[in-house]
Amino acid sequence: MGQRVSTAVGNITESATLAVDAKAKALRATGEHVIGFGAGEPDFPTPSHIVQAASEACLNPANHRYSPAGGLPEMKASIVAKTARDSGLEIDPSMIVVTNGGKHAVYNTMLTLLDPGDEVILPAPYWTTYPEPIRLAGAVPVVVSAGAEAGFRVSVDQLEAARTDKTKALVFVSPSNPTGAVYPREEIEAIGRWAVEHEIWVITDEIYEHLTYGAHESHSLPVVVPEAADRCVVLNGVAKTYAMTGWRVGWMIAPPDITKAATSLQSHCTSNVANVSQRAAIAALDGGLDDVAMMRAAFDRRRLNIHRLLNEIDGVECIEPQGAFYAFPSFEALLGSEIAGTVVSDTVDLAALILDKVKVAFVPGEAFDAPGYARLSFALSDDDLAEGVERISALLGSR
């Protein structure tokens, strides 16, 4: 009879970040006071003017019907204006596909660009979703790793060493999930020029563009290297910037031949993004960045706190996050030791032990191809952040 699940789907790994968040929520439902560092979403409510726009959109019968598969014209117009305002990239509506969240934009892009046997260079640590649609397209993720000593940033020399005649694309992310690393402009320029020289597509995820701290700034690769624009796909969305993870609105920006093909794919896959969500996203993009500034100030305070608190734990080392809302500490010095009566061999074991013993959830580094590390989101209240790290410290101090 053969297997019941296709090989392609059967090989997909469950999202580790969502799995950790689901386990934490399940424990909370039993009455446990679980502190979750797992979820990659702001802890703020969606700003009220955005919610109001959605409420009004619900009452308009025009939003009760199908709309263009690739996005409302008004939504595309808002993305054009927002992109010019925020990154300086001048685009046309024909270059946009509005997607059901950022993940959908990733899948559309990979399935549109890649053929079986193509290779995609994937810098690690990487967000858990990236490899899955690459493999689903029959292509091969080629992992290039950069550790804390390199600031979790890959070099052109590393990329060149990984390049073969099968290399079709590079996934480039700054600010980074999971590390919080932000590439300086000169490194982005070098990578962009390398991609142009070798006619390699760059899939650049800019979802955290507004969440940078201190002197660190986000720079859009096709703006820094305009020659790369014809082989560049920019991924973005409203989730992180406007605390809209549940609204499911993202987009891809690419040359028109790519977006035309991606729109055809989407027309058979999901059709249009929910109209009410698009109307809410329009209000977000058109409404300025005041709410973003408030959230970023809170994240900035929390990143400094979690960086300090983690480094106060004996055996834990954490570089200062430069962007996004994640700390990425190393627990390597603790591996192989006995903690609370259990010998911890890797950060998967460590994460399970900490959740079991002190009810604190975080994502082990193995999920990001970075064993020995862990991702702790600091998108949670200051009090929970301090208590969560204190619980970890108390447990690790008992070894």
**SS class:** alpha/beta
Q: Kindly, what is the distance between the CA atoms of the first and last residues, rounded to a whole number of angstroms?
A: 52 Å
Give the low-confidence spans.
none
Shape: globular
Tally of separate helices: 14
Strand order of the largest sheet: 2-8-7-6-5-3-4
Q: What does the largest sheet look like?
A: 7 strands, mixed
Strand content is 5-15%
Number of domains: 2
The CATH homologous superfamily of the largest domain is called: Type I PLP-dependent aspartate aminotransferase-like (Major domain)
Rounded to an integer, what's the Rg over CA atoms?
21 Å
Beta-strand segment tally: 14
The CATH topology of the largest domain: Aspartate Aminotransferase, domain 2
Mean pLDDT: 95
* Element pattern in H and E: HHEHHEHEHEHEHEHEEHHHEEEHEEEH
Helix content: 40-55%
**CATH domain class of the largest domain:** Alpha Beta
Describe what you observe in this structure:
Helix 12 runs parallel beside helix 14. This protein folds into two domains: 7-45 and 291-396, Aspartate Aminotransferase, domain 1 (Alpha-Beta Complex), CATH 3.90.1150.10; 64-286, Aspartate Aminotransferase, domain 2 (3-Layer(aba) Sandwich), CATH 3.40.640. It is globular. The strands form four sheets. Strands 2-8-7-6-5-3-4 form a seven-stranded mixed sheet, with helices on both faces. A three-stranded antiparallel sheet has the order 9-14-13. Strands 1-12 form a two-stranded parallel sheet. It has 14 helices and 14 strands. It has helices at 7-10, 16-29, 48-58, 73-87, 101-113, 131-136, 156-162, 185-197, 221-224, 256-269, 275-286, 290-311, 347-358, 382-396; strands at 35-36, 96-99, 119-124, 140-145, 167-173, 201-205, 232-237, 250-253, 326-327, 338-339, 342-343, 360-361, 363-364, 374-377. The mean pLDDT is 95. The termini are far apart. By secondary structure, it is of the alpha/beta class. The protein is 41% helix and 14% strand. The relative contact order is 0.16.
